[in-house]
Amino acid sequence: MLKTSLCLIAVAVSTNTLADENNKNEYASEQLEHVIVSGSRISESIDEVPASITVINQQQIQQHLKVSSELGSLLAQMVPGLAPDTGSSSNSGQTLRGRAPLIMIDGVPQSTPLRNGSLGIKTLDASAIARIEVIKGATSIYGNGASGGIINYITKQARSDGKPEGEISISSRFSAVKLAESGGGRISAAVNGKIDKLSYLLTASYEENGVQRDAQGDILGLQYGLSDSETQNYFTKLSYDFDDEKQLQFSYNFYSSQQKTDLGDITGDGNIGEKTYAIHVPKELQKQGKPQGPDGNVNITLKYVDYALFENTQMTLDLYKQDIENVFFFSTNLANLDEGYTGGQSVIKSEKQGARATFNSQFDFESVAATLIYGIDALNDKTSQPLVDGRVWVPEMDMESVAGFLQTKWVINDDIIVKAGVRNESIDLSVSDYQTLKLCRTPSQCSVPLSVRGDTINYDATTYNAGIKYNLTDAFSPFFSYSQGSDISDIGRLLRAATVDDIALIQTQASIIDNYEIGFTSQFENVRFEFALYRSTSELGTSNEFNEVTGVYEPVRAPQEIWGYEGLVNYTINQDLKLSATYSYVEGKNTEADEYLGAKQISPPKATANLTWQTNEKLSLAMSFLYVGDRKRFDKNAQGQYSGDQGPVSSYNTFNLSGQYNVNARWSGYFGIENLFNSDYYPARAQSYTYGGYNIKGLGTTATLGAKYQF
Questions:
Q1: What per-residue string of b and e applies to 388-408 under the rule 16 or more CB within 10 Å gives b?
Q2: Over the chain, what is the mean pLDDT?
Q3: Residue 290 and residue 507: Cα distance in Å, rounded?
Q4: pTM
Q5: Rounded distance, CA 420 to CA 405, Å?
Q6: How many C-alpha atoms does 43 have within 13 Å on its Cβ side?
Q7: Phi then psi for 12, rounded to 5 degrees?
Q8: Spatial contact of 266 and 235, defined as CB atoms under 8 Å apart
């Protein structure tokens, strides 16, 4: 339940009165579907981008917030090509087209690519987000870590020109299967306004979950769990307009989401169909260690924009700083029985400082409009993964990166768009001497610690991209694109599993990803289709292999090929009734061994549908559907069990329902029901991951009731 301190917390975001929002919803939705910011680092029409892009607009975000505040769930529902939701705080296995996406807030990286802990999706509360832009396919336009594409959270702007405007929202969430201990609450608020040349936006949210229950009423297992979690987010954006052409903007984001529980797990075995669930246990059997989750992550950004540096040139200067501390669960796999450690708990620590200068010059010729985007990026990223008890698992990696880039766009006769770009990046990665950990699964099954000599590794990569789109007619606009990404992500996983005594001998080479895509969009009077085929290759992909002797999962560098297709249809049945549906399929192989890739990268087929109905001026309803198909590519091992991330996935589906009733221009009430028909299932990751504690069932029917006040 919400603590009494909640009355001191400010809340979610709104920038218009309710009446204004209702009048503008349809217009805003249409406009957002045709604008993209992050694709080439400037604002441009989505119709001029030769690539697959998904934009989740404000209306869609608000609809999903009624059901769940989890961004992983929202993205899985709305983005074809993104793997299904994990049902947890971790996005491990939730890849984009089989590779890791780079998570960003307003273009500032939130992921920790040097040691990817798969917690990047939970970095900002949904109430502070204006829209989400998803660019699919490998890209290097923002540097390291975007082998699968980009997920960019675009935050809200102050929109009031006069007195302060804002919104306060409060809600309660509980299990409809078994109410006991499941009650939780959320409060969010925002205010925005303008004083002379200064615009301000302040948002805050606070949420407490009770226990989460599956379709049988049992408490979900605690590994990356959301039961008894406490989440708080404070976001501030200040903008000062020197004149109509020059603006200085400052933003601050604080995010914390941790599980604070007195429960303990009863660990099951997925190979024999036993689920992992939580119960009340004596203190010595409760979840050990510090609360898991992001522990007060901070982002600070300063941006200066001159919209008319020269007659045809815009300049944007960015400075950003980030401190991340993501705490993981206590694991007996981190035991060192010789030294008395029965387990351990790791923390990914990352400090980033960056500067970027981006210039945008536009030229108009007789039948050609040319845009040149060019600039330079500099980044210092210090990332490590120590254990809470003081042992070092992944030593500090100190990365210095400088990159220059040029992106060009040529619009010919208003309907042929040609894009081409290049980025050259120079990276120095320094690691001091270190020793790998001795880890024991049993007294007789231990890894061998090794002293490794550190060094500075140099990476120099030039990557290219090119694409063409022909807006032949509204009914058929084909495109083709080729893009490269240079990826040195998860070097930390390679270092901690070193089997040689010199860092120069570890396979830390960068992976160059080549991404090919062909597709089209079709817009008819009431229907829009999107379809794309893609293929990506990399000569040094990274996957896991279980070492039966040491009991440790070791990274394997080998060539990979990933391919798939996806489609989307939006159908405006009438002014008040709209339907959207998606389908996506992805597959991948280690081409050297001719073996299928596991579930850490490749997800099963996925289909979604979303129906919205504005029944009248006061009442609106929304229904969403998720279907996850089968993927059964692997055989059992010699012991008759599935291992690693190779468990078979059986299909399942879920429905969500939400609605809002506008009492008047200021007050409204809303409800949301997750897993409406109480489907009893294991999420795809829970089926495919055979690691201990992951075989946790999906959330049973869970209801949300809330109210909003706008001023």
A1: eeebebbbbbbbebebebebb
A2: 90
A3: 33
A4: 0.92
A5: 11
A6: 10
A7: -45, -170
A8: no
